[in-house]
């Protein structure tokens, strides 16, 4: 009973303070800059929900995202966005900004202009976000996240205790990576919007990221372009010659014929050629055992 009252109270408090509380990420590259507006939840039914209704023109610079590394942001209330070091004091008195934590995630759209909700693939999740003292949150980045000079990234937050609401800030990002390529599959943000009309959230009534996503870097599949596929096709050819079937070897290019045979092939070929001999020995063994008895 008392817990129901507490939850109801939390919902009321949340709605009452929609224009003066909650959380955002603080970085000049965020669309909307450090506008206080950014800390507000996306409003169901609001046409401006996407990227908080902001555009890239209002952002300065880019956030560098290192594949295999991590990205760190202060996740705090707007009042502390220019003073992250003092966030614990500034945001601490505001019960709405904490929401007992929740889950945050980073996503990326591999385009600069005309970004749409469906373009975002999620690449990192943090199950303990924000922290109680409104410190910086660390997001692990997959090692194969493809390079990008000028992309759009987003931060989303689904609070632990709140009304059905979600937060989203977009920011300009650049990915530094040894991988060039295109994301072919992964976890798409469109399947993890929450309380946004038109998008079915996965994971039940309150799909906190920790209920449906691993903590840390998220797996993505990447197709490499022809330039680097050249290197890969040579590797594939070598593998094809190891297969015992002569038809699959014939598919390989002429170049493959001159590829030195790897050790495993020699071993397996040896086994195959020995086996008829082994079968031939079988009667000998049988006869000798007959003679013995
Ligand atoms: C990726 O593309 C860049 C620019 O086109 C190129 O300089 C770099 O060598 C490529 N890296 C790989 C691993 O193919
Ligand atoms: C792969 O094959 C191409 C074309 O024959 C060749 O130019 C390239 O050097 C090869 N790469 C490797 C790593 O062997
Ligand atoms: Cu709220």
From TrEMBL:
Q: Which family is this sequence assigned to?
A: Belongs to the polysaccharide monooxygenase AA14 family.
Q: Which UniProt keywords apply?
A: Copper, Disulfide bond, Glycoprotein, Metal-binding, Monooxygenase, Oxidoreductase, Secreted, Signal
Q: Name one GO molecular function term.
A: monooxygenase activity
According to its record, what are the GO cellular component terms? extracellular region
Where does this protein reside within or beyond the cell? Secreted
Q: Name the InterPro entries for this protein.
A: LPMO_AA14
Pfam families in the record, alphabetically?
A: LPMO_AA14
- The protein, known as: Chitin-binding type-4 domain-containing protein
Which chain positions lie within coiled-coil regions?
none
Report the leader peptide range: 1-21
Gene3D superfamilies the record matches: 2.70.50.70
Cofactor names from the entry are:
Cu(2+)
């Amino acid at each position: 009973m008392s817990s129901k009252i507490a939850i109801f109270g939390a919902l009321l408090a949340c709605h009452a303070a929609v224009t003066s509380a909650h959380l955002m990420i603080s970085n000049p590259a965020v669309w909307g800059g450090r506008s206080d507006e950014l800390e507000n939840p996306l409003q169901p039914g609001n046409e401006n929900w996407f990227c908080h209704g902001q555009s890239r023109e209002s952002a300065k610079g880019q956030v560098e995202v290192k594949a295999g590394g991590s990205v760190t942001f202060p996740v705090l209330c707007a009042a502390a966005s220019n003073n992250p070091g003092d966030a614990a004091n500034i945001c601490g008195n505001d019960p709405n900004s904490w929401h007992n934590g929740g889950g945050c995630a980073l996503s990326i759209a591999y385009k600069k202009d005309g970004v749409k909700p469906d373009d975002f693939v999620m690449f990192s999740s943090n199950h303990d976000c924000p922290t109680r003292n409104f410190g910086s949150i660390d997001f692990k980045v997959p090692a194969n996240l493809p390079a990008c000079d000028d992309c759009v990234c987003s931060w989303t937050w689904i609070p632990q205790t709140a009304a059905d609401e979600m937060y989203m800030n977009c920011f300009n990002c650049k990915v530094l990576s040894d991988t060039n390529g295109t994301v072919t599959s992964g976890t798409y943000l469109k399947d993890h919007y929450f309380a946004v009309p038109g998008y079915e959230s996965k994971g039940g009534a309150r799909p906190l990221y920790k209920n449906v996503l691993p903590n840390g870097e998220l797996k993505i599949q990447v197709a490499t372009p022809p330039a680097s596929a050249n290197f890969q096709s040579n590797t594939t050819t070598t593998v094809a010659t190891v297969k015992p079937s002569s038809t699959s070897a014939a598919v390989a290019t002429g170049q493959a014929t001159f590829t030195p045979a790897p050790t495993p092939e020699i071993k397996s070929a040896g086994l195959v050629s020995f086996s008829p001999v082994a079968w031939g020995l079988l009667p000998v063994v049988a006869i000798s055992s007959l003679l013995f008895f």
